[in-house]
Write a sequence for this structure.
């Protein structure tokens, strides 16, 4: 095992790129069927760094972050492989104030980030019986959202700048 890289010295972006390479090879070997990514958890951390407050436990229904001003934020993320379909994971509850949507490219850079008021999602995204929720498209997010890309890129740069072991 000594030929393995010292993961403690890799940045977040390097870890994500390594994970993507591993999943690609496992798919090539037909050992896994999906390319699910940890970008959802990373996205939550990015928004939490940008907005502050409390990063809620994973079991919390409806939102991921509660700010100091008691604003409840739901976080959604999409990787480049998902952009072609252009749909984010569904909202199955509306007990949040805003949602922040992050889009990452194949190099795991935040290339787009949008904040959408909960009311816009409730009013403009059709409730789907198939997914038991409202599943906004990237186009809808762009249409109803406010661009917060620079803010989220700055927060991501903070977690990617230095690895924990450095």
């Amino acid at each position: 095992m000594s030929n393995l890289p010292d993961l403690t010295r890799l940045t977040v972006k390097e870890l994500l790129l390594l994970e993507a390479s591993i999943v690609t090879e496992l798919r090539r070997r037909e050992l896994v069927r999906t390319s699910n990514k940890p970008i959802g958890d990373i996205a939550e951390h990015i928004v939490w760094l940008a907005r502050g407050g409390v990063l809620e436990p994973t079991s919390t229904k409806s939102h991921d972050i509660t700010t100091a001003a008691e604003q409840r934020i739901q976080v959604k993320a999409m990787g480049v492989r998902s952009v072609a379909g252009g749909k984010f994971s569904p909202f199955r509850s509306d007990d949040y104030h805003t949602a922040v949507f992050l889009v990452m490219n194949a190099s795991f850079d935040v290339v787009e980030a949008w904040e959408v008021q909960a009311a816009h999602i409730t009013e403009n995204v059709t409730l789907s019986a198939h997914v038991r929720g409202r599943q906004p498209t990237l186009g809808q997010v762009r249409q109803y959202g406010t661009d917060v890309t620079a803010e989220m890129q700055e927060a991501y740069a903070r977690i990617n700048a230095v690895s924990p072991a450095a």
Remarks:
- The longest strand covers residues 72-79.
- The helical segments are 12-28, 39-51, 80-83, 118-124, 138-144, 149-160.
- The chain has six helices and eight strands.
- Residues 8 and 165 are 5 Å apart (CA to CA).
